[in-house]
Each structure stands twice: as structure tokens, then as C-alpha cells.
Amino acid sequence: YTTNSSADHRVQLDLGLWDKFSELATKCIIKIV
After folding, report:
1. 11-30 confidence digits (pLDDT tens)
2. Which UniProt keyword terms apply here (predicted)?
3. Rounded CA gap, 15 and 23, in Å?
4. Vertex 19, ends 7 and 15: CA angle to 5°?
5. pTM for this one?
6. Could you tell me the residue ranges of all domains in the chain?
């Protein structure tokens, strides 16, 4: 079941990237406003 664990890891990685991206986007929006 290595594929399943790797998929879980990929999901966690995506969530981490999304967290950083949303944080960055929020800062940009605050700067614009």
C-alpha cells in the first residue's frame, strides 16, 4: 500500500502549499486594500 501512503503525503504537501499561497494572497489583498 505504498501508493496510498504516497498519495496521503502528496495531499499533505498540497495543503501546506495552499496554506502558504492563501497566506500570501491575503497579505497581497490587504496591501491592495
Report:
1. 888 888 999 999 999 999 88
2. Receptor
3. 12
4. 10
5. 0.50
6. 1-33
